[in-house]
Design a protein that fits this description.
The protein is mainly α. The chain has a domain of 160 residues. The chain contains 15 helices and 4 strands. The chain has a two-stranded antiparallel sheet with strand order 1-2. A two-stranded antiparallel ribbon has the order 3-4.
C-alpha cells in the first residue's frame, strides 16, 4: 500500500509501449536512442549542500589541504581538493568576499613565515619569495624548473659544500639565465652595437684614456657615478657582448649600459630605471664577488655569512629582473 501511495502520481509502465511508438516517429537526429525510455519526474529537485574543510598548511602542495565532508577516513579528500583547485582557475568564485585565489594566497602568506624552508612546499616558497616567477612561469619555463630543482637542494642543505652548490646553481641557472633573456630579443643588433662602441672608444684616445671616457659616458647616461666601474677592462666586456653577453652578472650589467647608450631597448631601459641604480649595481657586485669565491680560485674563502647574504638578497634581484618583463 505504501508503494502505491509513493508512486501514485506516475503513469503505469504498460503505457510505455505507446510512448515508444510515438518516439520512433520523432526526428531521427534526437539524442535519445530507440531503445531508451525516459520519463520525467513530477517531483521538484532538492538541493543538498556539502561542507568541506579547507586547511591552510604551507607544507602541502599549493599551501593547503581539503577534508571531505564524508567520514570515509580521508580516501576521498583528493577528490574535493581537485574541486577547489578547479575553482581557483575562475575569477567569479569568492570566499569571504574575496576572489578564491586571492583569499588563499593571502592566508598562505600569513602562515608561511612560521614554517622552515625544509618544511615549506615549493609553490608556497614561490608565492612568498618569487611571485613574479610564478606569474611568468610560461615565459621562463626553464628558469622555473631549475628553481624548483634548486629549492630541493635548499631544503636538504646540511653542509658547507651544499651551500656552495646552491649559490652556484642560483647564479648560473636563475640570475644569469634571466640576464641572458634581455639580450636574446635584440641579438641581431649586438654586432652593430659592439662595433659602434669600439669605434667611439677610439675617438676618445688610445689605450686606457678611451676606455675610461667610454665607461664614464655609459654610466652617466643612466645616473651611475662616473667612476663606479673602477678598473674593469671595458674592452674585454665589449668583446663578449655578441657571444656570452658577459661572463658574469656584472659584465652582463655593463653590456646593458652599453646597449642603453648606443641603441636602447624597452626591457633593458625599464630594468635600469626602476629603483636606485647605484644600489642595484652594488648589490650585483657583492653577489658576484660571493659567486666567484665558490666558482673561481680566490684567496678569500666562502663563509656562512656569505651564504646568508646571498640568500637574503638574490631573490630581490630575481624579482627586479622579472619585473622589467611585465606587460603594460
Amino acid at each position: 500500500m505504501e508503494q502505491v501511495d509513493l508512486f501514485s502520481d506516475l503513469d503505469y509502465f504498460d503505457e510505455a509501449d505507446d510512448e515508444k511508438e510515438e518516439y520512433e516517429s520523432q526526428n531521427d537526429n534526437s539524442e535519445l536512442k530507440p531503445n531508451m525510455f525516459i520519463r520525467p519526474l513530477n517531483k521538484e529537485p532538492e538541493k543538498r549542500y556539502l561542507r568541506m574543510r579547507l586547511i591552510i598548511d604551507p607544507s602541502y602542495p599549493g599551501g593547503y589541504k581539503v577534508e571531505s565532508p564524508f567520514d570515509l577516513e580521508g580516501i576521498d579528500d583528493g577528490y574535493f581538493l581537485r574541486q577547489i583547485q578547479w575553482l581557483e582557475q575562475y575569477d567569479g568564485v569568492f570566499l569571504d568576499k574575496d576572489p578564491l585565489t586571492k583569499f588563499l594566497n593571502r592566508e598562505i602568506k600569513k602562515m608561511s613565515p612560521s614554517y622552515k624552508t625544509s618544511e615549506k612546499d615549493f609553490q608556497v616558497f614561490i608565492l612568498e619569495r618569487l611571485p613574479l616567477l610564478k606569474l611568468y612561469r610560461t615565459k621562463f619555463p626553464y628558469v622555473y624548473e631549475d628553481m624548483e630543482r634548486i629549492y630541493g637542494l635548499m631544503q636538504r642543505q646540511n653542509s658547507h659544500m651544499d651551500k656552495e652548490h646552491i649559490v652556484v646553481d642560483l647564479a648560473k641557472y636563475v640570475v644569469e639565465a634571466l640576464f641572458n633573456y634581455f639580450f636574446k630579443s635584440i641579438r641581431p643588433r649586438l654586432s652593430d652595437i659592439q662595433r659602434r662602441a669600439f669605434d667611439e672608444k677610439k675617438t676618445y684616445g688610445n689605450g686606457n684614456r678611451g676606455a675610461v671616457e667610454l665607461k664614464k659616458r655609459i654610466c652617466l647616461n643612466v645616473g651611475l657615478p662616473e667612476d663606479i666601474l673602477g678598473t674593469i677592462t671595458i674592452e674585454n666586456v665589449l668583446g663578449r657582448l655578441n657571444s656570452t653577453y658577459g661572463n658574469s652578472i656584472i659584465e652582463k650589467f655593463i653590456n646593458m649600459l652599453v646597449i642603453e647608450y648606443f641603441y636602447g631597448d624597452r626591457y633593458i631601459n625599464r630594468y635600469l630605471n626602476q629603483g636606485d641604480i647605484t644600489q642595484k649595481y652594488n648589490t650585483l657586485e657583492k653577489l658576484n664577488s660571493i659567486r666567484r669565491k665558490v666558482s673561481h680560485s680566490t684567496e678569500e674563502r666562502f663563509t656562512n655569512e656569505d651564504y646568508d647574504f646571498y640568500m637574503a638578497n638574490v631573490f630581490y634581484v630575481v624579482n627586479d629582473l622579472l619585473d622589467a618583463f611585465r606587460e603594460d
